[in-house]
Structures are given as C-alpha cells and as structure tokens.
Amino acid sequence: MKKILAMNHGMRDEIQVAADKSISHRSVILSALGSTTVEISNFLSGADCLSTVACMRALGANIEQSGDKILVTGNGLQGLKEPENILDAGNSGTTLRLLLGLCSPQKFLTTFTGDNSLRRRPMARVINPLTEMGANIVGRNGNKNLPITVLPSTKILRGINYQMPVASAQVKSAILLAGLYAGSVTTVVEPVPSRNHTEKMLAAFGVHIETFNNIIRIFPTYNLVAPEKISIPGDISSGAYWLVLATILDGSDVTIKNVGVNETRTGIIDVLSDMGAKIEMLNVKTSGGESSADLRVVSSKLRGVEFGGEMIPRLIDEIPAIAVAAAFAEGTTIIHDVGELRVKETDRLAAIVEEFNKISPNTFTATEDTLIIHGGQEKTFAECITRADHRMAMSLSIFGAAAKGVAIDDSDCVNISYPNFFDVLTD
Ligand code: S3P
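# shikimate-3-phosphate complex -> structure
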C-alpha cells in the first residue's frame, strides 16, 4: 500500500517529464535494422521499453545503455538472427505487436510470451493481417492470445491492401514493419487516424512511405539509412497527469519542458482546453519529423464536455486522467467510442467505474463503450486497487492528491512508463 496525501497547495514547478514511450520503442527497433550506430538520447528506461531492448538484443542487435543514452548497432535489414530463447514482451503490447510484424518475414522461428495482463490481450487483430500477407503464425486460444510462435517464413510476404477494423497504431506499425520486407507495396487504411510515430520514423530512416489522411502506403526496401542521433521528447501521456493536477489545484503554475506535441497525440490539450483549462504551447521545435514544446498550465475552473470519434485515438491513454479532471468539472462529461479501453493493460472502463467511485461516489458510470462522469460530487479518502495498471496507478494518485488523499495497493507498476512519477508528485 502506498499512501498519497491530499495536496492543499498549488503546483509551481518546472517538470522534465519521462521520455516518450512510443517513440522510444520505435527508435530501438528501427535503429536495430540499420547497419550503423545510432545514439539515442533521452531514451525511456521504463520496463516496457526495456522489454523491447531485451527482445532486439536477442534478435541480434548490439545495444549498449548508459543512463538515458543508448547506442544501437544493427546488422542491416536482413541481419536479424534467430533468438535462442522465447522472447518475453512483459507488460508491453507495443513490444509484442510491433515485433510480431517484424518477425513475420524472417526465415527463423520466434516464440513470444508476456505477463498475466499481456497474455489476456487480443492478438488476432495483428495475427490476421500478417497471415493475409503470408506469415505463418500460431497462438494459443485459436490464434488469439500469447504464447505465439512465428514460424520461419518460406516465401516473400505479399504486399496487401488492408482496411483496419479498429484504429490501432500498434497493429498499423506491425503491418508496416512486415511491409518493409514484402514483395510489393502495402497499403493500410485506418478507420480514424492513430499515432503516426512509426510512419515519421520510417521516413527519417529513408523509407519510401506515403500518407494521405488515414491511408498509409509503404514501399519495400533492402536497407535503412539510420540517422546518427535520435533525441526523444517527453511523453505527453506522462505530462497529462500534471496538466490535469495543475489545472484542478488552485494556485498552480507549471511548465512541462520538452513534451512531444505530434498532432496525433495532443487530444488531451484540445479536450482540457474545451473544458476551460489554460494551457500554452511555448518554444515549439521539430526534429526527425516530431514536434516538441514546453507546456505551461495554470489552474482554472472546468466544465463538462462531450466528445468521441476521431478524438479518441488522439488521447486514448489519457482517458483515466481526463476522467479525473471531469470529476472536478461542473456538469456532466460524456466520452463516446472508448470500447478499446476494455482491452488495455486492464479493462480501464471497469477499473475507472470501480476504483474512481471510491474517491468520488456516484460520479462514474460506463456502458460497453461510453464513459459518463457527473462532476462536482463530494470526495473522500479511499483505498484503491490499481490492477497492476500503470495508468490507473498514476490517475488514482493525482485524483487522491487533488481530493482527500488515497492509498493504492501497487505503486511499482508506474515503472512501466514513468519510473520517477512519485518523485515529482511528492516533491
Ligand atoms: C501505442 C498505441 C496505443 C496506445 C499504447 C501505445 C503505440 O495502443 O494505447 O499505449 O506505441 O503504438 P493501440 O495501438 O492498441 O491503440
């Protein structure tokens, strides 16, 4: 049990937020497919990205790490080798799904497993399109779950034209990585656009990739031209906790330094601003196709809002934090089209309703894919269960800090994406 006290003062800080998890994963994977050394700075040493590092080492990449800097040297696009053991993706859906795509065209066998949470998460969404490309993949439970084996590829994969049933950057990225090795062009069409870090980084590695709204086309290649250096910005998904907490605590004035503001990720800024938050984007810069900025946020009163559709993939990981903001807003917030939250590290809709209502009773209800929050109810101290989900742990912590305090059963799970979260919270 970790106890978080109520904060009876505003936050007045400059915060260096944890590095972007999505970009960290992709930087190691793509660098490992080049044939020169890439220096990656501000790499996220969270457990999920370390799972990717371990898997890429097992696939033959040379990776040296010292602090938040890593040096990755690959053996070229055709230079991956058969791992000697089962690859463990831990808690990381991104590691698993992207590497299923990467391993599909290889002439060797790879078997994956993961932790209790990952073994329950749906994998047919990635196995199906890869199988359509000609990959040979078998998984438990009718090819739906881990453990999963990718059998050696006996012929060149087919480029496909794939209409994705759900917007998922992980599935899209898996298809694009397999598409690098295919015999012809691969086209992916998303129902609504999801985060585009893979597309941007592939382009920075010299791959011919075209995007037009939600249509992405990748041309196969024989080698990647790796940049010498990649610098990873802060993660807006980690910054989200401070955007929300500083907004709802009176007297706050916080600047979150060097946060990634790729437009496929900034839904949280748009929604909080619609609710009445005061967020300024300062010092915007661009590197390797990715934009970053300092985000200044001062406290303000919030009102309930209604949103869904195309907005959802732009803030999918921030919904628990937005739900906290909505509990302090005047009026009702309705969030549509969030059924995907049921298949994250835990069923986050169920977790929000069960755990958040302990802190603010009669506030949160959900249908199959809608979350409704009646703001402005009385708050109370509560003991809550994180379900080993890092984003539940961090959202419950800021909720308690802004309310009457909270005790959570597991604080270690924040190591997945934000190892020093509690240092910032209790500073
Ligand atoms: C991610 C994509 C999203 C997101 C996850 C990271 C990525 O998942 O929720 O935390 O890095 O590609 P989906 O692709 O399943 O939507």
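# post-check
The CA atoms of residues 167 and 391 lie 20 Å apart.
The mean pLDDT is 97.
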